[in-house]
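Structural prep section.
Before we set up the soaks we want a predicted structure of the protein with iron/sulfur cluster in place, mainly to decide which crystallisation condition to try first. Input record follows.
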Amino acid sequence: MHFTGRTWRPPYEAHSVIIQATSGCTYNKCKFCNLYKNECFRMSPMEEFEEDLAEIKNYQPYTRRIFWTGANPFGMSYDNLKLRALTVRDYLIKCQTMAMFASIRDIKNKEVWQLRKLKAMGINGLSIGVESGDDETLAFANKGYTTADILEQCRKLDEAGIEYYFVYMAGLAGKGGGYRNARNSARLFSQLNPYFVSVDSLTLFPDTELYKMAQQGLFEPAGEKERIRELQLLINNLNIRTHLFANTVSNFIPVTAYLPYDREKVTNDLQYVLDNVDEIEMQEYRKNLKSLG
Ligand code: SF4
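Run finished without errors. Recording the tokens verbatim:
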């Protein structure tokens, strides 16, 4: 298999077969991110892609879901995505879903009819790291799009019937900003249909711009308890039927919920932690995180 770049897949894709479709990120400017800092964006040549498909066919011919790696393979053109999706079908006859990361920017240059066709070819299950649904936070993190863009582009996915997942980052708005971030994000997400919302909590890694800003006193991270209250607010204000997973290593307390049914129970569980665990203990946990992988 040709894994030349940093290979990263979300925890919930652990059961998918992975293949490198792209490496690196077309954007690489988010202030908190160091994932692809030292890589240029690259599309895997078709020969490589096909060799890998042949290898998968050899070992796992009945693969039903395949995850294309890279920060945003969905940034490829419609024609390129179509070619690759059809090629996957040539090799993996049982494959029903081709999932991948996508940015809001990657949807912009695709028409709804094209999205529908991609879905029909098996492209489905887009992980979108929106991180926030609050304009102030998006601008601060330099995400490069606004809440209006998220609304417009994800409505196209809804229209085309493409399943997508949002990633939200607690703590990104900094000290005192989490409550605004949670409320505005819940309001935005509630106008859309993410199949689930996955929550990470901001961890500052030394080779990021945000870390440097924190060192210079230009960014004050939210406390750990503030982040848990932010999560409570997000859960309490999400008015759609959706799953929420805040169970990655970046979360001090792992939480999963099916909303709105689990709302009260999960809010109470989080309150128990707020009432019984010390802020210092939570901060120690984060200090000991070496990576999110
Ligand atoms: S968060 Fe995603 S879009 Fe932003 S720089 Fe990192 S990989 Fe690229």
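Observations: Residues 25, 27-30, 33, 35-36, 71, 103, 129 surround iron/sulfur cluster (CB under 6 Å).
Flagged for discussion at group meeting.
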